[in-house]
Amino acid sequence: MEKFTTLQDTAVPLEVENIDTDQIIPARFLKATDKAGFGENLFKDWRFDKEGKPVEDFTLNQDQYSGSILIAGNNFGCGSSREHAAWALKAYGFKVVVSSYFADIFKGNALNNGLLPVQVSPEFLDELFLAIKKDNKESFKVDLENQKIEMLSSGKSENFAIDPYKKTCLINGFDDIDFLVSKLDAIKKFEEKQTQMREAAIQ
Amino acid sequence: MKKTLFDKIWDAHVVESIPDGPDILYIDQHLIHEVTSPQAFNELKEREIPVFRPNKIVATADHNTPTENQHLPVKDLLSRKQLKELSQNCEENNITLYGLGHPYNGIVHVMAPELGITQPGKTMVCGDSHTSTHGAFGAIAFGIGTSQVTQVFASQCLLVEKPKRLRVNVNGELKKGVTPKDVILYVISKLGTNSGTGYFCEYAGDVFENMSMEGRMTVCNMSIEMGARGGLIAPDQTTYDYVEGREFAPKGEEFDKLKAYWETLRTDDGAEFDQEYSFDAEDIEPMITYGTNPGMGIKITGAIPVEGGKSDAKALSYMGFKPGESLIDKPINYIFIGSCTNSRIEDFRMAASYIKGKKKAENVNALIVPGSRQVAAQIQEEGLDKVFEEAGFRLRQPGCSACLAMNDDKIPEGEYCVSTSNRNFEGRQGQGSRTILASPLTAAATAVAGKITDFTKSLN
Ligand code: SF4
């Protein structure tokens, strides 16, 4: 997995609450059997109209906004467990998603793909939206080591929480699979214990 | 220490706790399907890691399958390729697959319980958020992403933080025409779509105790719709009666002994929850949704709330509804009875008992999709197929179908569909489709009337 330490970049605002994974990547694009190519279908039905023309007032289509940080409304990523949502955001070029709330499964999927979910307070989220409305070139600094997100122009910042284990994984580019495989002996012991308990119970 | 049902099962499955980090949780049963497994198999292959416990995995094909002519090769090439990869992956890794056409094939959350694979006290996962369904048996069951599918393949374990404990109590007696679907839509409408985030939810109280297993599955299924990782209900005689005698259930003396263990799986008196809510059964009426998330629900005779935030306005404009409006008499051209929420035999009995002797309205396209081959067979055995046919409903072959519209079963743009599925997100049932979530009874009544109607008046 790609390492993540700090990122300084501009952001794209998407001021909609409860954005579900069906919007991030609609089900009809889930027929692929590899992880490539989901970026072009990110937010497909919000980005393009029926004729395939870009929808002008959708922020991802507006030239004035760019950058690898997506700032979204409350409760981002609810709904389906499809990891394709994280793959699509990543493939499109996002490295960080900021919201005041993330759905559990999405958050896990993002972290497993080196996409950092940054959960801020609703008040700070409002400030971020305001800042970017005022100046679309506003830069943000996301510092994973110090768990801090900062608006560079004003220097206003907020700390965010992250599971310490997950933080170590991201900073070093480790993933859970290698770790679990290194634990197979302990897992086999657990299985033996479980079988014994089951046998004891049914004797 | 006093423990909750959830704690008891969780704690019995912790292989190791990482200091300051997640638990290594052992998974007893892994279910897979064609859409969220191919990338996980590829990852394993690339890393040259074998599947650790193939006998703890069962596969089905459901999301991407046609509901007509299942005996013929699948027309859509991408779907066909995805199904073929599932077969190949299962074969190469010695995993049992109940593919298209197999008598055990069906939606993963319908087939596993009816085969007795789902049992109290187990930990179960699947790359599908509605895995919460299996919690109805007093199991810890939750949906996972594809990276986690890979982890379970590689180690039969997951690294997960233990969720917090939530309990939802509903006590009293349900009114006539109020079904388990209405109960859960009511709860979500009261609590909202993210109230459960970070929690595992236990449902308690006499309403759930008196519910059938099918009803409990409908309730637990939609736990994810209030953001909870999963939901569960303590096992009792109803659970044991359902499990006993099924294909993969323990048999004879082993069953009795295990039952004695299952009986210990209940929340201790005085055990603490991090959050608790209580509702009265008498307050619940048949429910429908009016917006684009499952929390936007009202009683069928109610009005769309006038107050609403920015997202409400966006949702209402997508749905073509106005604040303050009642949906009674709104013409409806599509109804869908199916999905892992409501495609078990009881759901079709409920719909058929209303439809019997009536005809669907001319304007209505009524799609009926059983959750599994076994349910389909039972529909025929009980003669329900005749009831549906005579009333003009189309009975299809099993699968997820119009719940997520990955196959050809799509609701056209702009059309309303009263659907027994679980999500009313924008475009969920096809691009531009407008979904109104409801119970099988409400869907059946809508189909007969051709519009949303207060059918409770006509129930005797
Ligand atoms: S029926 Fe719908 S919700 Fe259930 S597993 Fe299939 S797609 Fe998911």
Q: Trace the largest sheet of chain B across and list its strands.
A: 5-4-3-6-7
- Largest beta sheet: strand ordering of chain A: 1-6-7-8
> Termini separation of chain A (Å)?
47 Å
Structural class of chain B: alpha/beta
In N-to-C order, the SSE pattern of chain A is EEHHEHEHEHEEEHHH
Rg over alpha carbons of chain A: 20 Å
Number of domains of chain B: 2
Report the sheet with the most strands of chain B, covering strand number, pairing sense and barrel closure: 5 strands, parallel
Percent of residues in helices of chain B comes to: 25-40%
The third-level CATH topology of the largest domain in chain A is: Aconitase, domain 4
Strand fraction band of chain A?
Answer: 15-25%
Q: Into how many domains do the coordinates of chain A divide?
A: 2
Largest interface: A-B, 58 and 73 residues
| Residue share in helix of chain A | 25-40%
Q: How large is the share of residues in beta strands of chain B?
A: 15-25%
Q: DSSP helix count of chain A?
A: 8
Give the CATH H-level superfamily of the largest domain in chain A: Aconitase, domain 4
State mean pLDDT of chain B (0 to 100 scale). 96
CATH topology of the largest domain in chain B: Aconitase, domain 3
Catalytic activity (chain A): (2R,3S)-3-isopropylmalate = (2S)-2-isopropylmalate
Pathway (chain A): Amino-acid biosynthesis; L-leucine biosynthesis; L-leucine from 3-methyl-2-oxobutanoate: step 2/4
Organism (chain A): Zunongwangia atlantica 22II14-10F7
Domain Aconitase A/isopropylmalate dehydratase small subunit swivel (chain A): 1-122
